[in-house]
């Protein structure tokens, strides 16, 4: 079923531009749905002139009351309780999948077959097999496809990639990354979908680890082999009815990685780290210097150059907010920092640019091939932990 909800179009809300309107149909309206809707509404007046003006054509979700409320709240024209019906809507040109992991494969494939461009939340699928099916579907349909690994669109992260591409760091020796949160550390935390493999695929690995796996590939390159360990600390939790249910995903993982270019590194993620709210950190040690990044201070970088002034040598904190830094021409004067939500504005602008100008999504955004390779690595981490042995990465 579909319900029409009165709203002002994005074109009404921004000054006239020659940018085309592109209709967006979004699946999901919770945490990620809110982040995506916020970005779509900001994009046409902050990324100006925009590559396209997003038209919030439709939103889909299971609960009629909740999806109608989400449509009113975010400004979507129609509310659907069946994503299949939404994909039949001719107003929908882009399918934005902000749903849970088990609602990625079937809708994404159907959207591609319907000729819709697809942007999907991470991880792309619950395992590499699902991801490969999605990748094959978008290739066959010849639609644009992007995985929402939004940390590629943090200005400081893009600046690091630019330094690497320019040869400023030289040969990379080490990449160490840790993504740490605390939100399920209490034994009283209830059973949710992220703790069941049939819905999530994996635990901290897919939820947090997929981000640092992606950053490792984006900044360092392809892994050659790995060894890993996983742990589930609390093996049962109460569901909404008070009944104990088995937790069958990882609460934490650690992996040692060997890269094809000779670099080595470690990856770690956990949701059992009291005091860590959203601590996504990494450090690169290279031939000419080192860089350190922490998402909780996302406008900053720490940089060390080996050829720096000897008497004052040490890590230097750099505020990444100058007009010439990546993405900053769209925002505020230097020092007026931006936040996590702005990364989604950048990633949607990139996706619409690829649609309108027929440019490639990769390498600066993750496409479905990247989503598939990410899943291969995540599957290898689980296999290594399960079999207690080194696993080679094969795509």
Helix content: 25-40%
Q: Count helical runs.
A: 11
CATH class of the largest domain: Alpha Beta
Poorly predicted segments: none
The main pleated sheet reads as:
9 strands, mixed
* Rg measurement, Å: 21 Å
Kindly report the average pLDDT value: 95
General shape: globular
Q: Report the order of strands and helices.
A: EHEHEHEHEHEHEHEHHEEEEEEEEEHHE
Domain count: the total is 2
Structural class comes to: alpha/beta
- Gap between N and C termini: 41 Å
CATH level-4 homologous superfamily of the largest domain: Dihydrodipicolinate Reductase, domain 2
Enter the CATH topology name of the largest domain.
Dihydrodipicolinate Reductase, domain 2
What does the model show?
The longest helix has 20 residues, at 368-387. With 395 residues, the protein is an alpha/beta fold. A nine-stranded mixed β-sheet has the order 17-16-15-14-8-13-12-9-18. A seven-stranded mixed β-sheet has the order 1-4-3-2-5-6-7, sandwiched between helices. It has a two-stranded antiparallel sheet with strand order 10-11. Helix 9 packs across helix 11. It folds into two domains: 2-148, Rossmann fold, CATH 3.40.50.720; 151-392, Dihydrodipicolinate Reductase, domain 2. 32% of the residues lie in helices and 25% in strands. Strand 3 (53-60), helix 3 (64-74) and strand 4 (78-80) form a beta-alpha-beta unit. It is built from eleven helices and 18 strands. The protein starts with a strand and ends with a strand.
Write a concise keyword list for the protein shown above.
395 residues; alpha/beta; Rossmann fold; Dihydrodipicolinate Reductase, domain 2; nine-stranded mixed beta sheet; seven-stranded mixed beta sheet; 18 strands
